[in-house]
Amino acid sequence: MPAKLLAKTALAALALAAPALAETADQASDAATIIVTAHKDRDALPDLSGTLIFAGKLGDVALLTDLPPVQNRNLRVALADIPGLLVSEVSNGSWASLSYRGLGEPHESWNLLTLQDAVPAVPDMYSYPAAYFIPPLELVERVEFIRGASGLLYGPQPGGAINYVLRGPRREAGVEGQARASIGSWNARGGLASVAVSDGRLAADAYVQYAAGDGPRRVNSDNDQITSRLRGHVLGDDVTVTLALDHYRGRFGEPGGLSLARMAADRRDGSTPRDRVRIERLAPSLAVDWRLDDATQLTARLFYSRFERESWRQAGGSFGQLTPDANVLVRQLQAFDTAGIDVRVRRDFGGQGQHTLTIGALGHTSNAPVTVDKGNSNADVVGLAGPVARVARSGDAAALFGEVKLGLGDVQIVPGFRLERLRQRVSESLDLGLGSATGGPPGGPNGGLGNRRNIDTIALWGLGITWDAAPDLRFVANASRGFKPLLYNDGVTFQAGVDAAGTFEASYAVTLEAGVQARPAPPLRLDASLFRVTFEDQVGFLAGPLPASGAFGAVGTGGARRQNVGSMRNQGVDLAVRLDLLGPDGIGKAADTLRLSANLQLLDATFTRGAAAGFTPQYAPGHLLRASLAHIGKSGSRAALTLTSVGDQQGSDNNVRDFFLPGYTVVDASVELPIGRGLTVGAGINNILDERYAARVRPGGGGGFDPGLPRNVFVSIGWRG
Questions:
Q1: Beta-carbon neighbour count of residue 26 at 10 Å?
Q2: pLDDT of residue 41
Q3: Residue-range definition of the domain harbouring residue 153
Q4: How many whole angstroms separate alpha carbon 140 and alpha carbon 646?
Q5: Which residues in the chain land under pLDDT 70?
Q6: Bridge partners (DSSP) listed for residue 113
Q7: Among the listed residues 350, 415, 410, 477, the one whose alpha carbon sits nearest the alpha carbon of residue 3
Q8: What gap in Å lies between CA 247 and CA 231, rounded to an integer?
């Protein structure tokens, strides 16, 4: 009894410091995914999942199987049920740009850890965590998100961990398959085929998806993508082994950013008619999930990936303006060879196994050279005019982590730790100016060659507490420390108009959050939480014009200076409600479900010290509201109407007016209907109200505002059997 009283007192004290959210959930033991496993409440976190502990953590689940198939990488719709996760939309869909609670620029999702089926799906989870790869959303069963630094068991990133969980493996004996074809605005077309076979012991599945189109901009907005996966499974009574091979190749036109005036005149205009990017990923992985006995489980993930990011950019561009066609191309190739192993063990102990210990280790290594070459014309994609830069980059990391869940009746206390040892090296052997933008060999040296080596040993911690005050009422509190490692790009920039500091400091975050989840009646679920994040030495950028100072050169209008911009304090509230108007648990009893969902984040963010002191961090809107009305038919029909409202945002950390992003509201709708014999037809309209907006802005040459997609439509036909 004294222990329980002490735990409840600690919970109340932490809740007063900074409340947040948690889910009431049954225990689950399936270890096939890193974050959430299927259980009674499919869209809630279980307390236990395989070798992982989720009691005392804050997280969310978006069930894509409850939606019509999400087309064209529309993350705005796919992630609508995750409060506060900001989608900074990329008009050509070349990568995901996500951020959370104003913790840094969302470009390429640098401040999150992105995973697919428990395996990092980025070039380098420490030094280059760019979200260049998004699996086909039509095959994603659910998206799982662990908020902020409470995800320290999956990596140090302070913005949280997001995991795309694909369907499968098939455990029942038999064969199933599906296919889908779609067409849409701007000559969009796509095809998807998948198959799964099993005899109950051995199983295999595979898919291939093709997507292409001209894109929303009038020139150089096309895309051509192919994604495929092949997996084999051994399905034992106590052990599951999965061997997977993923491949992705995407080729995109990059139409460039627009100035405010040009965007107002024609949002489908462009500024870089010859810029291109190619992204390719080859990623084999091996996963083992093993129940050693009734109280002990082990999971192991062995993964490797080869990422290539190759781009061609016209020299001499400026912010938001048309790049002269005569300017030469500059070719940049970044290659990433990354490998890692993650091993975790869970042990239940105590009178009835009410306590749980989990410990694990991660080893990670990467090699990521960069080559930059100047072309001799606007059609030279090889770079025959000569080399501009040669950079060697490498890193390795080792981590030890563990948590213990102490079950004290209706209270659970979960302390945890993560110890990181990270080594990085960035070494330039060549760094020349471009010289003339219209031809000739590269110019003279840009100064001293960069040579950065750093070794970091970081101790991270977390403490979570849950209190089930009643069967349908849970309080949760969590305090965690996160770490944002230096990136390979910190101190070395290849973008015209963007200056970079010579030295950078790593960033640290402490997150306090606590809150309550209640289900006062079967049709209704309510969540309310408060949070406070302090983030030290944030790496961001100050927008120009900026004078020359110290080691910096002058930065003109539309340019930027990348550096540690200061420490921030972000705090706010998350609210979410889900109401079944119709359904088995609805206000009105029915076989089909009609569900109203809404979530709101109110955010107050400011820099408290440093170069940006007193300013609002970039991409920290005062409000982010999502609401959806979904019909989930027992026969397989699906329909969804989704509203997204985003408040005003700053596009630079010093709040320069030229980078300001006004708030906007977008409405999307889609439907899929079965027509018999396994066939379905689908259709959708995105941006129904044809809102004119921009969700992102980039500095430097070729930068500017990236207009949101105008109203667009798609139709599809599918088969499943």
A1: 11
A2: 61
A3: 2-720
A4: 25
A5: 1-41, 491, 493-495
A6: 161
A7: 410
A8: 12
HEC letters along 631-673: EECCCCCEEEEEEEEECCECCCCCCCHHHCECCEEEEEEEEEE
Question: Which amino acid does the sequence have at 176?
Answer: E
Residue 5: its H or E element: helix 2-17
Give the model confidence (pLDDT) of 93-117 as tens digits: 899 999 999 998 899 999 899 999 9
Query: How, if at all, do strands 473-484 and 498-500 pair?
Result: unpaired
* CA 51/CA 518 separation, integer angstroms: 27
Number of domains in the chain: 1
**CATH number of the domain to which 406 belongs:** 2.40.170.20
Q: Measuring CA to CA, which residue among 186, 128, 131 is closest to residue 162?
A: 131
Helical (H) or strand (E) element with 4: helix 2-17
End-to-end CA distance of the chain: 56
Token pair 């209907």: residue: 673
Specify the DSSP class assigned to residue 34. Answer: S
Which tokens sit at 579?
């109401």
- Phi, psi for residue 399 in degrees, rounded to 5: -140, 140
Alpha helices in 36-91 (DSSP H): 75-78
Angstrom CA distances, 136 to 15, 34, 73, 180, 451, stand at 39, 19, 7, 12, 39
The owner of tokens 């192993």 is 341
Q: Which of 267, 257, 263, 375 is nearest to 315 (CA)?
A: 375
**DSSP H/E element including 13:** helix 2-17
Dihedral (C-alpha) 149, 154, 160, 164: value to the nearest 10 degrees? -160
CA 62 to chain centre: 13
Q: How many beta carbons lie within 10 A of that of residue 118, not counting itself?
A: 23
Instruction: Give pLDDT tens digits for 666-718.
Output: 999 999 999 999 999 999 999 999 999 999 999 998 899 999 999 999 999 99
8: region left, alpha or beta (phi > 0 left; psi from -120 to 50 alpha): alpha
Report the C-alpha gap between 373 and 386 in whole angstroms: 6
Q: What is the CA radius of gyration of the chain?
A: 25
Q: What angle do CA 400, 396, 533 make, to 5 degrees?
A: 60
Asked if residues 111 and 86 have their Cβ atoms less than 8 Å apart, the reply is no
Residue type, 614: G
